[in-house]
Design brief:
The complex is a heterodimer of chains A (121) and B (112). With 121 residues, chain A is mainly beta. Chain A is built from no helices and 11 strands. In chain A, the strands form 2 sheets. In chain A, strands 2, 4, 5, 6, 9, 10 and 11 form a 7-stranded mixed β-sheet that branches. In chain A, strands 1-3-8-7 form a 4-stranded antiparallel β-sheet, with no helix packed on it. Chain B is built from no helices and 9 strands. In chain B, the strands form 2 sheets. In chain B, strands 1, 3, 4, 7, 8 and 9 form a 6-stranded mixed β-sheet that branches. Chain B has a 3-stranded antiparallel β-sheet with strand order 2-6-5, with no helix packed on it. The mean pLDDT of chain B is 95. Chain B has strands spanning 9-12, 18-23, 36-40, 47-50, 64-69, 72-77, 86-95, 98-103, 107-111. Classes of the chains: A mainly beta (121), B mainly beta (112).
Chain lengths: 121, 112
Amino acid sequence: EVRLVQSGAEVKKPGESLKISCKGSGNSLTSNWIGWVRQMPGKGLEWMGIIYTGDSETRYSPSFQGQVTISADKSISTAYLQWSSLKASDTGIYYCARHDIKSVTPMADLWGQGTLVTVSS
Amino acid sequence: QSVLTQPPSVSGAPGQRVTISCTGSSSNIGAGFDVHWYQILPETAPKLLIFDNNNRPSGVPDRFSGSKSGTSASLAITGLQAEDEADYYCQSSDSSPSGSVIFGGGTKLTVL
C-alpha cells in the first residue's frame, strides 16, 4: 500500500526558515504530481501548489507564489515545502497529497498525515 | 472567503439522509470543471470521498453519492452513521487564473 509520510511537527520563531518533507513509501514518488494544502487553525483547506517529481515542474497558486518554495528529490521519492522567513500567519497544518491531473479537474487521491507548523515568538 | 460556497454546518440523526451543497459560478463548476469531495474525520488526514462529480473510490460505501448541476454540486449521505461525523470539503478548478485548484469552505456534519 502506497503511503505519504510527512515530517514531524515544527515550532519556529518569526523570521526563521523551515523545510518540511513528504516521502512516498517504497520510492513511490518518482513520477507523480505532489501538491501541498494548508489548513490554518479553525479554517478550511487552501491549495498552495504542485510539483511533478519526475522533472520538478512546479505550479503555484497565486496566493502562495513567492511565499513558499516547492521542490522535490526524485532520487529519494520526497517532496518539500519551504519558507525562507516564517510569519505567525504561516501557522497551520500542511498536507501533502498525490494529485491525479489526468482528469479535467486535478484531484488529490492520497494524502499525507499532515505536518503542524507553529510560528510564535 | 472561499470561491466555492458550502454551508458551515449540517446535522442529522442516525439513519437519516443529509445533503451538503457546494455553490460555484460560471468560471468554475459552471465552466465544466468537475467536483471532488473530501472527508476529514477528527484527527485524521483528508480522504478522497467522491471524484469527478459522482464516482466513489474503492472502499467508499455507496451511502455516499455526489451530483452536479449547473454551477452547483451536492454530496448526499444516506443511512447516516455516527462515524460519518466529520468535515466535508468540495474541490474544483477555476478558469481565472486558468486551472487553479479551489476548495469550498468546508461543512461540519454533526450526527445527532
